[in-house]
Task: structure prediction
Amino acid sequence: MASAHDDAPMHLRPMHTGQVTDHIARPIMRVENVDVYYGDFRAVTEVNLAFGLNEITALIGPSGCGKSTLLRSLNRMNDLIDGARVDGEILFHGENIYGKGVDPIEVRRRIGMVFQKPNPFPKSIYDNIAYGPRVTGMKVDSMDDLVEESLTRAALWDEVKDKLKQSAIGLSGGQQQRLCIARAISVRPDVILMDEPCASLDPIATMRIEDLMQELRKQYTIVIVTHNMQQAARVADRTAFFTAQVSEGTGARTGVLVEYGTTTQIFEDPKDQRTEDYISGRFG
Amino acid sequence: MLANTTASVTEATTTASTGGPTTPSGHPQRSLFAGRARPGEAVIKLGLRLAATVAILTTIGIIIALLVPAIGFFREVPVFDFLFGDRWAPRFADASFGVIPLVTATLWTTAIALIVSVPLGLGAAILLSEYARPGVRKTLKPILELLAGVPTVVYGLFALQFIQATVFRDWLQLDTGAFSVLAAGLVMGIMIIPTVASISEDAMSAVPMSLRQGSFALGANRMQTSLRVVFPAALSGVMAAVVLGISRAVGETMIVAIAAGNQARIVGGPLEQGQTMTGFIANAALGDSRVGSLEYDTLYAVGLLLFAITLIVNFISIRLVRRFRQAY
Result:
């Protein structure tokens, strides 16, 4: 099985950690035995996952199952929270992003993020896009071209090309979220993490973002947290189902990965009873 | 059991016919159109109105109290001579009322105070809001605000005895007399730091966390996030802090009265002494000028000018904020 990939560089070879992650031909990120803590509280435990290059992976599960926590630890955004700590390894191109000497700022540049609520800077549309390349010291031939390219890829260019100097705050919610996606891709990341990117959008804006994700996956790897199972079924190649385990003694809720597979398998032929209960709407 | 049920059914029917619940608990029944006043609310409203009125009446009172004697002054001395004259000698036989010397001293002390307080105050604010952990912030901020509670007369003595006499003259061997606008300005700047820091810190802390996260997620570091995202978003609050700092510097009296000097002459350099507008008012008001005399009215003319300067600074800053702020 591995023979087909023997020529591939080390970090692109198939992985052999968890049983469910074996099938991914070209993993760009691997999550190995990861526990995430907030102080003494263990929010997520024993997660093993891999994200395939140019695939969309959805993390689904009920509230409090730790999927957003896990997502934020994938680009070290958890570092900004006091007391947050990650055990285990998160490998990006084969390198542990929590390893010694790793610059979290470079990690975040390579692994971008789009948030639940659109959070454009209170600057002009142009400056929103130019911000990332400027602060990361990216060598750019023409900032105008980069802004146009980023906005075009985020399917927003035609709507804003005549008002680039206007404040981004004046855009609609859906436009703001596409602006945030354009902003994320302006620094040319490999992976884009999306934390419920459509949670505050109407169905039409949601549909546009989903279409956009299908375009983006040609160049980027996307990991999306969503509460919306239909959304996971529509957009994702693979789906990971998480749930919260309540500890007998303390009543503390800890997130665990229940099942990970292709979206078709998870939704049509779940192996775990809890997955089946969740996707058929019996709990969560 | 059965009787009970019947009773409640009957009750329900009655209730329906009278158009409202008659259960003993809950809100008492009341017509929508009773227009019933709530006396407590009216009293509170009146109290709040009174509070607001007192503030407005006081301001109007101050303006009138300044204007009336100032008009008396300007009957004797032309406005042009007052504003642009370069000799201030109200008590001399050949009295002269050119306010420029006082204005230069005020400009020097204010400028020096701002050069000290704005960078240090904003630096402290960025440290507290963007770098310090919550626990550190909770301890540091009250300590910083304590600086604002030191009586200004103490600052004045500190400027005169320590900064001017010991540091400038003994240690640094600077060519300066007993007073200097530099000593007064420096210490005034230290006094203003907490004001600038505290208000700007409030403004920066109020910037939504999501903006910082957006910046970090793009690969920005903490300094870039602070200066390029948080600071511009908090600009109106920061400007308010700076303007308050300017107002305090222009209006500060005790420090300059003690340490800047009391000879009104045009100040050409930071090591010279000079009398500020407030310094003059403090000195003259303690003196023996007769009520209604020209010298007495002079106080009010200078007071009015101070008031006008503060007003102009406020006005300009509001315009600046409208122009540059990034509203989130």
Summary: Chain A has one domain: 2-118+193-279.
